[in-house]
Design brief:
transmembrane, membrane, mainly alpha, Na+/H+ antiporter like fold
Length: 369
């Protein structure tokens, strides 16, 4: 086994400075979710202008996921879990529709791009980034570089575009709702003193559940473990305190910085072609998620913003942060995101192996464009 590379503290400090500058700039120009999107865009630009100057330890990203997981767990009360149980048929319906839509996107991309269907399919599946890449590595004839780039670009587009759509007139009256919600929150803003002593119990439970979840290979363990642990402790009767805004903003910064450093288009051969395909695929996926959100809001008594955040395949951490910020129905958002994550984690890999096994294998060398 190779030795782990030491963390360069100077590079970490530089990364923090640039991320904070990005967050402050986005806050100044009033971009939605500035402490998530600002650091993300700052890292995307900085890391591709000056390579290998920025470092973000995974421990910081994991700490942020624990914070977000705790926030999601707070919303999973007994009443919320009962409401989620009633939503299960719709969760299954939307997961299947989204998956079928992504297969259609892959077919279109493969026909018009010359990219093989197998590669296009793995690039379009709305699963966890790590899971899809592992599956790509285990499948013959897959262009792993193209899959990784398409998945990361899609994730970036969704995380950037979804907040802008949610805060735009497209979904209607969201601005008014978010403004009134912000006024209500400011009137009862959580304080640092109000955290104690209960936060000590929840902090220990969240960290322990994150570690256990990671050991048992739970998907998104550092998010899902604390969410489950927090929900269980609350169901046992102990109240979990809401976190101060500064702490949730810090978590947003840590996640935004991590995601921004993931995308490195300079390392991709045939960058223009692959980048164009990734953008088109991402736009089609966002349009499809928006259409399904409208359908879901017709079928169920929920806002279109809640529906979009529930269905957008951008990761439960990012969608949970946005839902928390605009005071959407966080238990519903978390429930739909969680259901799709497990649906894809357990059912999609074996189904994909069956489908891919029937496709021709000569799509080009691994990692080549």
């Amino acid at each position: 086994m190779g030795t782990r590379k030491p963390i360069r503290l100077g590079a970490v400090a530089l990364t923090i400075v640039l991320s904070v500058v990005g967050g402050l700039l986005f806050k100044l120009i009033q971009i939605p979710i500035p402490w998530l999107l600002g650091p993300m865009i700052a890292m995307l630009i900085g890391n591709n202008v000056v390579a290998d100057r920025f470092v973000w330890p995974p421990q910081l990203r994991n700490a942020a996921l624990i914070i977000v997981g705790y926030t999601i767990g707070l919303s999973l009360t007994a009443a919320a879990l009962k409401e989620m149980a009633h939503e299960l048929p719709y969760m299954l319906l939307m997961a299947v529709l989204l998956l079928a839509y992504c297969v259609g996107i892959a077919y279109v991309v493969s026909r018009f791009s010359g990219m093989g269907f197998r590669t296009a399919l793995l690039g379009s599946i709305p699963g966890g980034l790590t899971q899809v890449i592992i599956l790509a590595e285990e499948t013959e004839g897959i262009n792993i570089t193209a899959v990784t780039f398409t998945q990361v670009t899609r994730l970036m587009m969704i995380v950037i575009c979804v907040p802008l759509i949610v805060f735009s007139p497209i979904l209607g009256q969201v601005k008014d709702a978010s403004a009134s919600a912000a006024a209500a929150v400011s009137a009862v803003a959580p304080s640092w003193g109000g955290l104690f002593p209960n936060i000590l119990v929840f902090a220990v439970v969240s960290v322990v559940c994150a570690i256990i979840g990671n050991r048992i290979k739970l998907p998104t363990a550092y998010l899902l473990g604390p969410a489950i642990g927090t929900a269980i402790v609350q169901l046992c009767g102990l109240h979990g305190p809401a976190l101060p805004g500064a702490l949730t903003q810090m978590a947003q910064l840590m996640i935004g910085t991590y995601v921004g450093l993931m995308l490195r288009p300079r390392q991709l051969p045939n960058m223009v072609r692959n980048f164009t395909l990734a953008i088109v695929s991402g736009l089609l996926l966002i349009a499809g998620a928006l259409g399904m959100a409208v359908l879901l809001s017709v079928l169920q008594p929920m806002s279109e913003a809640t529906g979009l955040l529930s269905l957008a395949p951008g990761g439960m951490d990012q969608m949970g942060i946005i839902a928390h910020e605009i005071h959407a129905d966080l238990p519903i958002v978390a429930g739909y995101q969680l259901f799709r994550m497990f649906f894809i984690f357990f059912l999609v890999p074996p189904l994909l192996r069956i489908v891919l096994r029937k496709q021709p294998r000569g799509e080009g060398r691994r990692g080549a464009a």
